[in-house]
Amino acid sequence: MTQPEKLLRELIALPSVNPAFLPAGDARAGEKRVADFLATTAGRAGLDVDLHKVLPGRSNFLARLTPSGTTTKRVVLAPHMDTVPPVSNEQLNPIRDNDRLFGRGACDTKGSVAAMLSALMLLAREKNRPKNTEIVFVGLIDEENAQAGSRAFAASGFKADLAIVGEPTRNQIVTAHKGSLWLQFETRGKAAHGARPDLGVNAVHEMARIVDVLQSDYAKMLRGKKHRLLGHPTISVGSINGGTQPNIVPAKCVASADRRLLPGETQASVFAEIQALLRKRGLQTTIGCAKNPGLPMEANLRLPLVQQFLKSAKQAKPAGVDYFCDASVLAHGGIPSVVFGPGDIAQAHTSNEWISIRSLNQATEMLLNFLRSLA
Ligand SMILES: [Zn+2]
Q1: Which of 100, 121, 203, 265 could disulfide-pair with 45, CB 3.0 to 4.6 Å?
Q2: Are 26 and 17 a contacting pair, CB within 8 Å?
Q3: Residue range 156-179: average pLDDT?
């Protein structure tokens, strides 16, 4: 069994469910077990280990390989340690079937943790470590909920020339991803008796027309925008709630929508664009956000380390993905970031999450090649 597979099996067996998705006091919650285990493992391999407290009982885990000379560059390997809840505790028991290793977190992102830390530990054993580049592995907490780990890491003022954020990209180097906004719309009408609708203003009817504009004209308008790696932005209405009973004209209606952003788009630009379109149709609504926006991310392809990673991976063109991740947080905190990791996002969060062992071993090799190529 290869080192990354062994490490991944051990990681799957240590539950690290994001506490946001479990009842208080659930024994499977939190990243501590994984962080402590990684500290022991990395310490034994000769890396300098450290825990940075972020929330009570929840710390980012750091392991450093210092260069033989003075540090002039820094590369960060940054997967997250938390997972979504297992469907049952059986998912905490790693099971191999041919090329597939099943278990919660197998691809999202304990596979990346195993590949990245294995590559760093293998490099630490070699005589020729980079002369001037420090390599820092950071296992982040809370990616699946509020990204408290990457936010704290970026806010700490940590400087680096490149972060490779671990997510299942099928070992493709991803240099751009979309952002996300959870939009909330509210229409106000005037209540009246259902027998005299002429005396009221129907907030549900207003919202129904707004939903129609969003799903048809606005969606069409978005299909006209295009990004080289990400395609077009999207809108999807996800919920609608209004009125109380048949014989009262509804005075209020609330709807929510998921809007995925391209690099360059902002919350303000989206609000303005939607309001302008609705005004043209004579429709009125307030727009807000149901949670903090996830900003889109795009790495500068001219950065030497991005070029070097693409070259060492023999990847001719960078890729883009639709989902938001820690890369956005680190990039907006000043650390140029790309996304890379074994496994496929199609298996993430599923009831039979798995990873290809071939993909896991290949990711380790690719990372090791790149780290070896650093000066
Ligand atoms: Zn996930």
Answers
A1: 121
A2: yes
A3: 97
Instruction: Output the CA 349–ligand 1 centroid distance in Å.
Output: 6
Report the mean per-residue pLDDT for the chain. 97
pLDDT of residue 22: 97
- pLDDT by residue (tens digit) across 88-125? 999 999 999 999 999 999 999 999 999 999 999 999 99
Domain locations in the chain as residue ranges: 3-177+296-372, 179-289
Q: What is the DSSP string of 46-96?
A: T-EEEEEEEETTEEEEEEEE--SS---EEEEEE-B--BPPPSSGGGGS-EE
Ligand 1 centroid, distance to 108 Cα (angstroms): 5
| Cα–ligand 1 centroid distance for 147 (angstroms) | 11
- In CATH, the number for domain 179-289 is 3.30.70.360
State how far the Cα of 186 lies from the Cα of 258, in Å rounded to an integer. Answer: 15
Distance 84 CA to ligand 1 centre (A): 7
80 C-alpha to ligand 1 centroid (Å): 9
Q: From ligand 1's centre to the CA of 348, what distance in Å?
A: 6
Architecture of the domain defined by 3-177+296-372 = 3-Layer(aba) Sandwich (3.40)
How far apart CA 82 and CA 84 sit, in angstroms, is 7
How remote is the CA of residue 185 from the centroid of ligand 1, in Å? 27
Q: Looking at the predicted structure, is the pLDDT value of residue 127 above 90?
A: no
Distance 113 CA to ligand 1 centre (A): 13
Does this model's pTM top 0.85?
Answer: yes
C-alpha 323 to ligand 1 mean position (Å): 10
Per-residue pLDDT tens digits for 53-69? 999 999 999 999 999 99
Q: What's the CA-to-centroid distance between 78 and ligand 1, angstroms?
A: 14
